[in-house]
Design a protein that fits this description.
Layout: E1 2-4, E2 7-9, H1 13-19, H2 24-34, E3 50-60, E4 65-71, E5 76-78, E6 80-82, H3 91-103, E7 109-110, E8 118-124, E9 133-143, E10 159-163, H4 164-170, H5 174-188
Parallel strand pairs: 3-9
Antiparallel strand pairs: 1-2, 3-4, 3-6, 4-5, 4-10, 7-9, 8-9
Length: about 190
């Protein structure tokens, strides 16, 4: 969130991507690939072959743990997040809503700030109702002071609090391992 004249607002796609500095060749290529989508009316439309999603890795800084969620469709332990609802266009707001819906945590707040932590274009396999497509996933960090209150949105989507090392072992997704490495560096940074 950016504060202007005492009021806070979440940056839109163009502002968020303009401020983000990609790290490494994969993220740089993904960043270049999706920049043209920022002005498109269907940038969040899940019916397009490549569209934006917003997600968050939820952290509990005092214990240095992160929260992963089992995603049935992907058959993987991942961060929380997903598609924007109709009319939603602010990435951080989408990540906050998804975090609340998928964990029940009502105290989620951007940590250590509201900056985009990682942009990753990820493949999504076909399902009975959707063809294979790609998500341009905008990843944030959200902190909670009440990790014990995390509750899965349904029994098929369990949640687990893990150390960074445990989370790296649990996930099969290399792009999430990169996000976890970035979180680890932030957790190790002097206050």
């Amino acid at each position: 969130m950016v504060t202007t004249g005492g009021a806070a607002h979440s940056p839109g796609l163009a502002e968020l991507l303009a401020e983000h500095r990609p790290q490494g060749p994969t993220e740089t290529a993904d960043h270049e690939r999706v920049r043209h989508l920022t002005g498109a009316a269907d940038a969040w439309d899940r019916g397009t072959p490549l569209h934006f999603t917003a997600s968050a890795l939820i952290v509990h800084p005092p214990t240095r743990r992160v929260l992963l969620r089992w995603h049935v469709r992907q058959q993987a332990w991942l961060q929380v997040g997903g598609h924007g609802d109709p009319g939603e266009t602010l990435p951080l707001d989408i990540a906050l809503r998804e975090g609340l819906e998928e964990t029940g945590l009502t105290d989620l707040t951007p940590w250590p700030d509201a900056a985009l932590v990682h942009l990753a274009v990820v493949p999504v396999p076909a399902s009975p109702v959707e063809p294979a497509h790609e998500h341009a996933d905008l990843r944030f960090l959200l902190a909670t002071a009440t990790p014990e209150r995390a509750r899965p949105e349904n029994p098929a989507a369990p949640l687990e609090w893990l150390t960074i090392a445990e989370a790296r072992q649990r996930t099969t997704e290399e792009n999430l391992r990169e996000t976890l490495d970035r979180v680890g560096r932030l957790l190790d940074a002097p206050a």
